[in-house]
User: Which sequence fits this backbone?
């Protein structure tokens, strides 16, 4: 059975590329009837950022990536934490020391520093020179009680090869790989040790992770061999980059996953877009449901090239998803954004529910709604100055406002078709072009030159507000 894991380190708020990798794992598990496991790799105590674990878990939950296992048997599932499993890694590290496949290194930070400086001065590559690997038993004994780290004894010759599920054959010359630290002096394992041990003990069948981990391949493959374990199938997926070809970063727009949530992307749109960040279904499809993605996802359609992340494309896709939402769902998704902006509260919720749908066709991000809809919620319309100048003092404006105030007041059913009918009657009666009524009326009611369809907008404003705003306009447009 397929068993995959998402193994984030709580060292900061998650990057969108990291969550994309979680999604690939989850989709792969769901499509193959396998299990998806979440393991928090929190053994680097110096880089631990409080709150980041919560943010990571909230992000995957928001996307709907549920997990199937954890230390609490029977659920509700919590993720595994490596910091609770340190005894396991310690025991394994010491076993490798006993077998001569790893060794204790007593070099102090000062010694390592001097070593590096000397190497730099001699223009040699820097790295640990393996001096403690050559210590005799007696010399080791003499260090008893001294702080130490455990280093892995890499083979000194030959190459380490691996047939990556995505990149094919990858190889590294062993001599260029240093004797990496497995266990630190504080007793915590490094990423390499804990990751390999847990992937084995948790019976992970496929590792799907970002390309930045390719360089860890020789260390991991050698560690598996030393432990007599079969490695899982390693698959390195492309990194995300900005349109300029550099690593996707703040410069290119939002990159922290929580920023996307705050900007008002929908979970389904984000899911769809992230699935296509490095994977493709092999045809022209872009809008794909979760079910389709799960059904069609396969590792062999993942690209080996870095993937260019276009925020505009994501925004477009979000707009497509917003358009397709049932009106009620759109309204429910929008309300929190308007509440947060302070323009909607309990007392105007019903009114808000009427005006929100007017932007469903056009809006791309829910966070755009407060600005787009703000004029509905104010008593003081601030008119676009240039547009106001254009209409101010035009001879028909006074008559037009009076006629419309009258017709609207008399309307029994204050609905778009009726509003349109009496407005068109007024236009005909005035004998002016359509725009000479439509535009100044929009300006009077919203202060703006663009916005939702005029008659729907008037209906949503309601009779009272509409009439009051037209009255108000007499003061500024006449
Ligand atoms: N803890 C690593 C990370 O933060 C895991 C990498 C892996 O999947 O092996 O991404």
Assistant:
């Amino acid at each position: 059975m397929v068993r995959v894991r998402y193994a984030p380190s709580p060292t900061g708020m998650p990057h969108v590329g990291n969550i994309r990798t979680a999604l690939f794992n989850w989709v792969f598990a769901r499509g193959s009837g396998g299990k998806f496991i979440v393991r928090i790799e929190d053994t680097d105590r110096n880089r631990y950022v409080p709150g980041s674990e919560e943010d990571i878990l909230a992000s995957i939950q928001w996307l709907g990536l549920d997990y199937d296992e954890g230390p609490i048997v029977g659920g509700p599932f919590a993720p595994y934490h490596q910091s609770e499993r340190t005894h396991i890694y310690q025991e394994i590290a010491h076993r490798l020391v006993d077998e001569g496949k790893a060794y204790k290194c007593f070099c102090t930070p000062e010694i390592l520093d001097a070593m590096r400086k000397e190497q730099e001065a001699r223009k040699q590559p820097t790295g640990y020179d393996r001096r403690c690997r050559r210590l005799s038993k007696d010399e080791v004994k003499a260090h008893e009680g001294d702080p130490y780290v455990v280093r892995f004894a890499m083979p000194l010759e030959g190459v380490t090869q691996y047939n990556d599920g995505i990149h094919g054959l990858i190889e590294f010359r062993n001599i260029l790989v240093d004797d990496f630290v497995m266990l630190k002096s504080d007793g915590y394992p490094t990423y390499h040790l804990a990751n390999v041990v847990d992937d084995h003990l948790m019976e992970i069948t496929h590792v799907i992770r970002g390309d930045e981990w390719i360089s860890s391949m020789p260390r991991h493959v050698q560690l598996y061999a030393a432990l007599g374990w079969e490695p899982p199938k390693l698959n390195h997926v492309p990194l995300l980059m900005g349109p300029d070809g550099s690593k996707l970063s703040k410069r290119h727009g939002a990159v922290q996953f929580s920023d996307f949530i705050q900007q008002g992307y929908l979970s389904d749109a984000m899911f769809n877009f992230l699935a296509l960040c490095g994977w493709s279904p092999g045809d022209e499809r872009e809008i794909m449901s979760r079910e389709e993605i799960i059904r069609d996802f396969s590792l062999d359609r993942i690209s080996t090239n870095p993937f260019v992340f276009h925020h505009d494309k994501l925004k477009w896709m979000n707009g497509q998803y917003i358009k397709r939402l049932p009106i009620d769902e759109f309204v429910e998704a929008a309300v929190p954004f308007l509440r947060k902006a302070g323009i909607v509260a309990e007392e105007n919720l019903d009114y808000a529910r009427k005006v929100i749908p007017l932007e469903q066709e056009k809006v791309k991000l829910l966070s755009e709604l407060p600005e787009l809809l703000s004029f509905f919620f104010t008593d003081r319309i601030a008119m676009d100055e240039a547009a106001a100048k254009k209409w101010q003092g035009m001879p028909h404006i006074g008559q037009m406002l009076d006629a419309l105030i009258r017709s609207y007041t008399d309307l029994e059913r204050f609905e778009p078709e009726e509003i349109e009918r009496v407005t068109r009657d007024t236009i005909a009666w005035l004998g002016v072009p359509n725009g000479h009524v439509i535009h100044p009326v929009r300006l009077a009611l919203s202060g703006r030159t663009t916005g939702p369809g005029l008659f729907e907008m008037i209906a949503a404003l309601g009779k009272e507000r509409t009439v009051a705003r037209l009255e108000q306009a007499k003061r500024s447009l006449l």
Remarks:
- The pocket of glutamic acid is lined by residues 7-9, 41, 191, 195, 209, 213 (CB under 6 Å).
- The first strand starts at residue 3 and ends at 6.
- DSSP finds 20 helices and twelve strands in the chain.
- The mean pLDDT is 96.
